[in-house]
Design goal:
heterodimer, A: alpha+beta, five-stranded mixed β-sheet, 37% helix, disordered N terminus, B: alpha+beta, six-stranded antiparallel β-sheet, five-stranded parallel β-sheet, 21 strands, globular, disordered C terminus
Chain lengths: 294, 663
C-alpha cells in the first residue's frame, strides 16, 4: 500500500511555515506584573507569517522574551487552551474590542485597524497578571442561578425526557455558551468587583465575603441565559422558581439596562437579548404570582 | 467507614464523571486542574459518543458487536474484559447524559438521533450538533458545580500536579501540587489519587490537542514508578485543518454525514474544485474500500490520505499537502443542523465557507491510545467486577488513572466516538472502587506529615533551581518546537527503524540540552514560563518511550505502521495459487500474533530512559483475526482464516473448553 517515504516531514509543514521576508507584526500590550499592581504599556515586534492569529503572536513573544527596543523582559502572561474557540479561555481586548485571541487573525486585524495590534486585559475582572484575569465571579453566577438539571443521582433510571427537534434547536445555541465573559465585558451594568483579602481574615471568611461581593453585582447575561435554558428543560424547570428567585434578587435581571452590547459581542452568536427578554417576562409573571400567593 | 478523601487530577470528562459519582457516594473530593474545568480539552471532541441503541439493535447490533468492532478496529491490542464492560455500559451512559440535559439532536418523534462513525456499519453515534464533547462536559461540569455548592467537592483550578507522594511501602498517599497564580506548593493527602489528565499531543508540537495536553502529569507519575503501556500507539486523525499554532480537528462526523474525500486525478489541478467533473475526481477511499468507504478506521484513512499525497503526488496543492473533504452536495440546512459547530471553525479560521467550497484537510496527531498501565478484575461473565480495588489502578497502590491517560480501551487504534464513552465510563466505574480504597488505605495508614514536608521541599528546590537558571543557552520554546518536529517526522504515519533509532538518540541529547534551558521570567507570580519549562522537561521521558516502543515493535498494528514489516495482499489470480498464498498469509499472521500480540510496558529507568517489556493480552472473548479492511485477496484470506478458526473451536469443544464466539 504505502511505500517507505522519507517525506513524513510534510506532516510537519503547516500552512504558515513559510516565513515571509522581513515583514513584522507590531504589538502593544498593557502589562501588569502582579494583582493590584500598576499597569504599563510595552511594545513588541515579531516576524510576520501568513495566517497568524493573536495566539501565535503571543507564542512568539514568549519565545523571544524581548521588547521591541531589545530589552530582555518576562514573557507576556495570557490564558488559552483549545485555540479553536470552544473553551472560552483566551478572552481579551484586541484593538479595543472584547473577543477571543485564537480567532483573531492578524491579517484581518491589520486590514481593519492598521498596522499595530493593541492587547489589553478584560476590564471587568481583576487582573492577575498581564492579560490574565480572575473570572471566578462568572462561575459564581452559574451557581447563583442553579444552572443544572436537578437529577436524583447518576444511577441508570432510563433515558431523559422526550424533546422535540424544535426544542432541541432552541436549547442547543444557549448550551454553547463557553463562559468566555465577552458579554460581561461589554455590559455597562456589569462593573468590576475586586475583593482583597484582609489581614487576619481566614480563607473561609474571605471566600464568604467575596461571594457576597460577587452576588451584590449584576449577575450578567450569560447566567440569565443559562437560567432560561434550564427553565425550558422538562426536568430543569422543576426548580424554575428557585432560579426566578435568584434572578429577581439583588444583582438580578432588573439591573439589565437593555444596552444590547452582550449579543453584539458574543463569539458564539447566542441570542442573549432574547434570553433576557424571556427571563424578564417570566420574572414579571413570577413576581405577580408571588404577590397573589402571599 | 472512615470519611474518605480522594484527589482527582484533571477535570475533563473522565475526571468530572468520577468526581460527580464520588460525591454522590459520600466521598469528599479535591479536584485539581490546570484550567477551570469547564475549559478542559474534552470540549474539543466534536462528533459524538457510541453505544448500541434501540434502532441498531433491530438491525442486528448488540453490545457484543460494539465490543467486536472496538477490538477489531484496535487490532486486538486491548484486554477484552474492560472493553466488554464499557460496551455494556454504553446505553446507560447515553441515557444518563440525556437525563443530565445534554441537547442531543432529535428525530422528528423526539427521540435521540444517531449517525454512523468509522469502523462500524451501524449508526451508533449519538451527537449534539458537532460539539458533542463540549455538551457532555458541560453537563458534568454543572453536576459537579452542584456538588461544590453542597460542599462535597473542592475545586483547585489553575493548579499543577507535580507528582504523587509514596510512603515507604510504595503506596500512594496523596500528591504535591502548585498554585499557578501564587506559585505556592501544597500537599494533598488522599486515600487515593486519580489521574484524569488526558493525552500528550504537545510532545508532537502542533496537534489537534489543547495547550494543556503536555502529558506532564502522567510523566510525573511514570517517573515516580508507574508503568506506561502501549506508548507507541498514537492516533493521527485523517482530517485536520493545518494552522500556525494548532492543527484544528475536522470531525469524522463530516464523513459520517456523507462528506466525501477526493483529489483531482490531474496532479495539482488548478481549476475551481466545483468545476472539476466527477470523472476527473478520484474518490480514493470509496474506490479502495467499497464496504466502509469514507468511514474506514482512522489509521487506514490517514495512511491513504498521506499516501495519495506523497506516493501518488496527487496533493491538491503543491507546496502544502492536502486533499479535499467535500460536503457541498449536502443541503445547507442539514449541514447547519448537524455540523454547524465544525463548519464555523473552518470558516472562521480559513475564511472559506465549507458549505459552498470543498475543505482542504490533512492528517494530524490526535489521540494517545497508550497511557498509564492500569489493572482490572475480570468477572465470571467476562466483564469487570464492580468495586474491585484493582479496577483502573496503576501498579502503584492507591494511584489510579482514567480517561485518555490510561492505556486500557483502544488498543492499537481508537474508533471515532469511542473516546467520550471510555472517558465517562472509566470515570463512573472507578468511583465504587475508590469508595473501597478508603478502608484499605486506612489499615496501613499513619502520620504522613513528614513525608509530605519532604516532598514539598524537594519540589521547591527543583523550582528554585529552575528560576536560578537564567544564563543557559537554550530556549524552552524553540527546543519544544524541535522536539515536536522530530516526533512528527519519525513517529506518526510511517515509521522506519533507522529514523526511530536516530531520533531516540536525538531526544536523549535534547533532554540534556533541556538542562541548559534559561527561564526568561524569574518571578514568583503567574510564572507561565517556568511552568512550561517544567512541563517540557517532563515530555522527554514520554517521547523516549514512544520512540523506543516503536523501534522495538517490528510489525504493523493499527496506528503503528512499519512498511518494512507489512504483510502485503495476495498476488496470485488463479484459485489454487490464491488459496496457497492465503494459507501462507495466515501462517505469517499466526506467527506474528504469537510474537507481537502483547502490551508494551515501559518502566522509567535512570535519566528517564525507558526499560521495555511485554505483557500477554486477555483475548478470551473474541479470538484475534486478521484485520483485512480493503486488502487485496482479503476474501481468500478470510475464507482460509475461517476454516482455521472453526477447526480450533472444534478442537477446544472436544476438550471441553469454551471459546468466545466472534462475530
Amino acid at each position: 500500500m504505502i511505500k517507505a517515504v522519507d517525506s513524513a516531514a510534510d506532516l510537519v509543514r503547516g500552512a504558515a511555515d513559510h516565513a515571509s521576508d522581513g515583514a513584522v507584526v507590531r504589538v502593544r500590550v498593557l502589562r501588569q506584573d502582579v494583582a493590584g499592581g500598576e499597569s504599563y504599556w510595552e511594545r513588541f515586534e515579531v516576524p510576520y507569517e501568513p495566517n497568524m492569529n493573536v495566539i501565535s503572536v503571543l507564542q512568539k513573544i514568549a519565545a523571544q522574551a524581548r521588547s521591541q527596543d531589545g530589552r530582555k523582559v518576562a514573557p507576556v502572561a495570557w490564558d488559552c487552551n483549545c485555540l479553536e474557540e470552544v473553551c472560552g479561555s483566551c478572552t481579551m481586548l484586541i484593538n479595543g474590542r472584547t473577543r477571543m485571541a485564537c480567532s483573531a487573525l492578524v491579517d484581518r486585524l491589520q486590514a481593519e485597524d492598521g498596522d499595530e495590534i493593541e492587547l489589553r486585559p478584560m476590564s471587568k475582572f481583576p487582573v492577575v497578571r498581564d492579560l490574565v484575569v480572575d473570572r471566578r465571579r462568572l462561575f459564581r453566577g452559574l451557581e447563583k442561578v442553579k444552572a443544572w438539571v436537578p437529577v436524583e443521582g447518576s444511577y441508570d433510571l432510563g433515558p431523559g425526557p422526550r424533546i422535540s427537534p424544535e426544542e432541541q434547536e432552541d436549547a442547543y445555541p444557549l448550551s454553547e455558551c463557553m463562559s468566555c465573559g465577552c458579554c460581561l465585558e461589554a455590559c455597562p451594568q456589569y462593573t468590576k468587583v475586586e475583593a482583597v483579602r484582609r489581614d487576619g481574615e481566614s480563607e473561609a471568611e474571605f471566600e464568604k465575603r467575596r461571594k457576597a461581593a460577587f452576588d451584590s453585582g449584576f449577575v450578567g447575561a450569560h447566567a440569565i441565559s443559562q437560567a432560561v435554558l434550564f427553565n425550558a428543560h422538562p426536568t430543569g424547570r422543576m426548580i424554575a422558581d428557585e432560579r426566578m428567585e435568584a434572578l429577581t434578587r439583588q444583582g438580578g435581571i432588573q439591573m439589565c439596562g437593555n444596552a444590547q452590547n452582550c449579543v453584539a459581542v458574543c463569539p458564539k452568536r447566542i441570542p442573549l437579548t432574547r434570553s433576557i427578554a424571556r427571563a424578564g417576562r417570566a420574572a414579571t409573571v413570577w413576581a405577580l404570582k408571588r404577590l397573589f400567593d402571599r | 467507614m472512615a470519611q474518605s478523601r480522594v484527589l482527582v487530577v484533571g477535570g475533563g470528562l473522565a475526571g468530572l464523571a468520577a468526581t460527580m459519582r464520588l460525591a454522590e457516594l459520600g466521598v469528599n473530593v479535591d479536584l485539581v486542574s490546570l484550567v477551570p474545568v469547564k475549559r478542559s480539552h474534552s470540549v474539543c471532541a466534536q462528533g459524538g459518543i457510541n453505544s448500541v441503541n434501540a434502532l441498531t439493535r433491530q438491525q442486528g447490533d448488540s453490545e457484543w458487536k460494539h465490543l467486536d468492532d472496538t477490538v477489531y478496529g484496535g487490532d486486538f491490542l486491548q484486554h477484552q474484559p474492560p472493553v466488554k464492560e464499557m460496551a455494556d455500559w454504553g446505553p446507560k451512559i447515553i441515557d444518563l447524559m440525556d437525563r443530565l440535559g445534554v441537547p442531543f439532536n432529535r428525530t422528528s418523534e423526539g427521540f435521540r438521533d444517531q449517525r454512523r462513525f468509522g469502523g462500524t456499519l451501524y449508526k451508533r453515534t449519538a451527537f449534539a450538533g458537532a460539539t458533542t464533547g463540549q455538551q457532555l462536559l458541560y453537563a458534568l461540569d454543572e453536576q459537579v458545580r452542584r456538588w461544590e455548592v453542597e460542599g462535597k467537592v473542592k475545586k483547585w483550578e489553575f493548579w499543577d500536579f507535580l507528582g504523587p507522594v509514596l510512603d515507604d511501602s510504595g503506596r500512594c498517599r496523596g500528591a504535591v501540587c502548585q498554585d499557578l497564580v501564587t506559585m505556592q506548593f501544597k500537599a494533598f493527602p488522599a486515600d487515593a489519587v486519580v489521574l484524569a489528565t488526558g493525552g500528550n499531543g504537545l510532545i508532537y508540537g502542533r496537534s489537534t490537542m489543547s495547550m494543556v495536553c503536555t502529558g506532564s502529569a502522567v510523566s510525573r507519575a511514570y517517573q515516580a514508578g508507574a508503568w506506561y503501556g502501549n506508548g507507541e500507539f498514537i492516533q493521527v486523525h485523517p482530517t485536520a485543518i493545518p494552522g500556525a499554532d494548532k492543527l484544528r480537528l475536522m470531525s469524522e462526523s463530516a464523513r459520517g454525514e456523507g462528506g466525501r474525500v477526493w483529489v483531482p486525478r490531474k496532479p495539482q489541478d488548478q481549476r475551481d474544485p466545483r468545476s472539476i467533473p466527477e470523472a476527473e475526481r478520484c474518490y480514493f477511499l470509496e474506490e479502495r474500500y467499497p464496504k466502509y468507504g469514507n468511514l474506514v478506521p482512522r489509521d487506514i484513512a490517514t495512511r491513504e490520505i498521506f499516501d495519495i499525497c506523497t506516493t501518488d503526488g496527487l496533493s491538491v496543492e503543491k507546496d502544502r499537502l492536502c486533499v479535499y473533504l467535500d460536503l457541498t452536495h449536502i443541503p445547507k440546512e442539514t449541514l447547519d443542523r448537524k455540523l454547524g459547530g465544525i463548519l464555523e471553525i473552518y470558516e472562521k479560521f480559513q475564511g472559506v465557507d465549507p458549505r459552498v467550497t470543498p475543505m482542504k484537510i490533512f492528517p494530524a496527531v490526535h489521540y494517545s491510545m497508550g497511557g498509564l498501565w492500569v489493572d482490572y478484575e475480570k468477572s465470571a461473565t467476562g466483564g469487570l467486577v464492580e468495586g474491585s480495588l484493582r479496577n483502573q489502578q496503576t501498579n502503584v497502590p492507591g494511584l489510579y488513572a482514567i480517561g485518555e491517560c490510561d492505556y486500557q480501551y483502544h488498543g492499537a487504534n481508537r474508533l471515532g466516538a469511542n473516546s467520550l464513552l471510555s472517558c465517562i465510563f472509566s470515570g463512573l466505574f472507578v468511583a465504587p472502587t475508590l469508595v473501597n480504597v478508603g478502608d484499605a488505605a486506612a489499615t496501613s495508614g499513619g502520620d504522613h506529615v513528614r513525608l509530605f514536608d519532604a516532598e514539598i521541599r524537594r519540589h521547591e528546590e527543583r523550582h528554585r533551581e529552575l528560576l536560578a537558571r537564567t544564563a543557559g543557552d537554550e530556549n524552552p520554546y524553540t527546543l519544544h518546537q524541535e522536539l515536536g518536529n522530530l516526533m512528527t517526522r519519525v513517529a506518526t504515519v510511517v515509521r522506519r527503524n533507522d529514523q526511530l533509532a536516530a531520533a531516540y538518540d536525538e531526544v536523549c541529547r535534547m533532554a540534556e540540552r533541556w538542562k541548559r534551558c534559561a527561564v526568561s521570567d524569574t518571578g514568583n507570580w503567574t510564572n507561565q514560563n517556568v511552568v512550561f519549562t517544567k512541563a517540557l522537561g517532563d515530555m522527554f521521558p514520554i517521547a523516549k518511550l514512544i520512540l523506543k516502543g516503536a523501534l522495538l515493535r517490528d510489525e504493523c498494528r493499527g496506528a503503528h505502521f512499519k512498511p518494512a514489516f507489512s504483510m502485503p495482499g495476495l498476488t496470485a489470480t488463479d484459485p489454487e495459487g490464491k488459496r496457497r498464498e492465503a494459507e501462507q498469509w495466515c501462517d505469517a499472521f499466526e506467527a506474528n500474533t504469537r510474537k507481537w500480540l502483547k502490551s508494551t510496558i515501559a518502566t522509567c529507568g535512570p535519566n528517564g530512559n525507558p526499560e521495555i517489556s511485554y505483557q500477554d493480552i486477555d483475548t478470551s472473548l473474541i479470538p484475534p483475526r486478521p484485520r483485512l479492511y480493503g486488502l487485496v485477496g482479503g476474501d481468500a484470506i478470510e475464507e482460509a482464516w475461517r476454516e482455521r478458526a472453526a477447526k480450533v473451536a472444534g478442537e477446544a469443544m472436544a476438550k471441553g473448553k469454551t471459546v468466545g464466539v466472534g462475530a
